[in-house]
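pls ignore typos typing on phone
zinc ion + seq
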Amino acid sequence: MLSTDSSTSAAQQVLQSVFGYESFRNQQAAIVSHLVEGGDALVLMPTGGGKSLCFQIPALVRPGTAIVVSPLIALMRDQVQALQQNGVRAEYLNSSLSADEAFRVESLFRQGDLDMLYVAPERLMMPRMLELMDASKISLFAIDEAHCVSQWGHDFRPEYIQLSILHERYSAIPRIALTATADQATQREIISRLDLHDALLFNDGFDRPNIRYRISENQGNAREQLKRFILNEHEGEAGIVYCLSRRKVEDVAEWLTAQGMCALPYHAGLSSDLREHHQERFLREDGVIIVATIAFGMGIDKPDVRFVAHLSLPKSIEAYYQETGRAGRDGLPADAWMSYGLQDVITLRQMQEQSQAEESRKRVERHKLDSMLGLCEMHSCRRQALLRYFDDEMPEPCGNCDNCLTPPETWDASIAAQKALSCVYRTGQRFGVNYLVDVLMGIASGRVFERIQQFGHETLTVYGIGKELSQGEWRTLFRQLIAGGWLSVDYEGHGSVRLTEAARPVLKGEQSLTLRKMLKVSKSKNKKVSASFSGGNGRLWDALREHRKRLAEEQGVPAYVIFHDATLAAMVERAPQTLEQLGRISGIGERKLEAYGESFLEVIVEFGEESSPKADTVAESLVLLAQGLEPLEIAHKRELTLQTVYRHLALGIEREEIDLDDVVEIDAKSLRALAAAFEQQEGSALKPVYELFDGEYDYGVLDCVRAAMKRASA
Ligand code: ADP
Ligand code: ZN
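k done
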C-alpha cells in the first residue's frame, strides 16, 4: 500500500500530466488520497464541482480496472470519449453496444488492459458481468448519481437498490458514491442502502455560485420576455428552454427559429431518431437552443450551456434545481431564468388536485409545489432559500440572484387581499379570477356587465371596490393568493377559486400580508460570456472555435471534448508561442498537447497578430529596447510572450519610431528573399512565409520584417 505522501504525489502527477490541471479543487485532494489508500467515500458536490476526477484519478493511480456505475448511456459515452482524448484506457458496456463491440471491451477488461470501465447498473448485476469481475483485478467501484438509490427521490432507479451486492461480494475493494442532489434524508438512504456506514462523508454543499437565479412574472407575454433575454444576453450561445407541454415546445421552438435563432424541439412525441438528432446537434454544434419538455437533460454533460430558461413552473424545487443545474457546468457565468404567470399557477394546482395518487403521496407533492411557489414569490435571496431547502445553510445573501441584485419593492397588501378574498366569498366561491377582477373593478358595460347582472353581483358591496388597482395588479394579487395557499383552485378544472382555512385570519384583518410588487422589466447588464472571453481579440477566439469544431467533426465527438471554452479563452489571453507555453494552460494534458498542440499554435500565430495593443504598452517595450535589452529579455521582464514583444516592436517599426535593424540582424540577401516571399502571396499572412523558409525565421522576426516592408511601400 502506498503511503499518504507518495499517493498524494502520484495523484498530483496524474492530475497534471493526464488532465492538464494545475491543482486540486476544494476537497478533491482529500477524497482522492482517501480512495487511493483503500477507503470508502460518500461525496456530495454540486454539479460542475469536479466529481469525476475524484474517482478517475484513483482509478489511474491504483492497480486494476475501476468500475464506474452510471445510469445514463449518453453520459457514459461522453465521459469515455473525453477520457480517451486524454489518453486514458476507458471503455463502456451498455445496451447501445453490438455483441461484437461488447465482446471486444470484455476481452480488454479480462486482460487487464483497461483503466476504467463504465457500466449501466442493470448490466452490472448480470451473472456474466459478475463472473467477469470475479476474474479481473478491480481497483475501485464508483457509483455515480448515487441519489438514484432513493425511493423518495425524483430519479429512483430500482436497479440501484441491488448495488449493495458490491460490498458483500467485493468487500476489500474501495467504493465511492457521488451525487449533486441529496437532502439529509436522501443521504441517510444512500448510506444504508449501499451499506456505506464506514464511508467518509465529504460534503461540499450544493451551491452553484456561477449560476444567477432570476424569476420574473408575466402577464401572458413570456415568449417576448424570453426573446429579449436571449438576444440581450445570450445571442449565439447554447441554452435549454423548458416548457410543460409538447405543443408549447413546438410553438416556442418555431417562434424562436422565426426570430433568427437556432432552436430545436425535443419531446416524447417526436420520433426517437429525430430526438437523437436534435440532441446530437445540441451537443456538437455551438450555439444551439433546445426547447424541451422536462424529459430532456438527464445525462446531458455539456459543460458550456450558458442559460436554462423555464417558461413553465417546475413541480418542485428538486426539479427546478436539477434542471437549472444543467447550466454552467464549466464554472463560467450562467443564467437560470424563469418567467411565470397566473395561468401556470392555476394549471399546476389543478393538476395536483386531480392527481390519482394516494393521500400520503399527494401530501408530499402538495408540499413540494408549495415550496416551489414560495421560492417564486419570495422577496429575499433566492439562493439562500434554495440551499436551505437542501439543508445547506448560507449565512449571507448571495449577491448573484435577482432579489439580491435588484431588491423587489414590496407593499402592504392586507386591505387589497381582504377585498379580493371577500369578493370570492360574496360571489359564492364559484368563479374564476377574470370574472372576480371584473367585479372588483366594477365593470359597467358590455357583455361582462350583462354577465354580472345575470348573477345580480352589481348589487354586492364588493362590486367596484377595487378601482385603485389595475386589472394586471389584481391578477398578480390573485396569483400570489393562490400561490401562497389562501385560495385554492377547483377540482373540476374550470378554474374557479375557493377560500382555504388560511384565508380566514386575513379576511378578518388578524393577519397582514406583505407581497412583492410586479417587477418592471429591467435591462440586465449581464454580458455574454463569449464577449468577455474574446478579450479584445474576437477574431482569434472565432478562429480557435472554428478549428476546434473541425477537429471535433473529424472525430465525431462534441467540441468540448477537444478543449473547453475556458481553455480556448486562456489561449486568447496568453497567446502562447511554444508547445511548452501552451502545455501550461489549464485543461491541456500531455496527450492533447501532442495531438492538437501544433495546430492550435498555428491558429494563434495566424490570428493572434490581429489584436492591436494599447499605445502605452508598445511604448514600454520600445523604451526597454532603447535601453539595450534583447526582445527575449523584454519578454521576461514584462512577463509577456516573445511574440507579443515582437508585435510591439513591429508596430514601432511601422510608425518609424525604430528601424528593423534595431531589432534583428538580417543580411541584405536574406531580406530580399523574405520580401519576395511576402510579395508573392496576397494578403500578408505570416504562416506561408514561415513555412516557405521551414521555420528558419521566428514568427516575431517575420512580423518585424513585414512591418518594415509596409513602411517602405507607404
Ligand atoms: P461534476 O461531475 O461534479 O458535475 P465534472 O467532474 O464534470 O463535474 O467537472 C466539472 C468541470 O470542472 C470539468 O470541466 C472538469 O474538467 C473541471 N475540473 C474538475 N476538477 C478540476 C481541477 N482540479 N482543476 C481544473 N478544472 C477542474
Ligand atoms: Zn441572492
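The radius of gyration is 31 Å. The mean pLDDT is 88. more later
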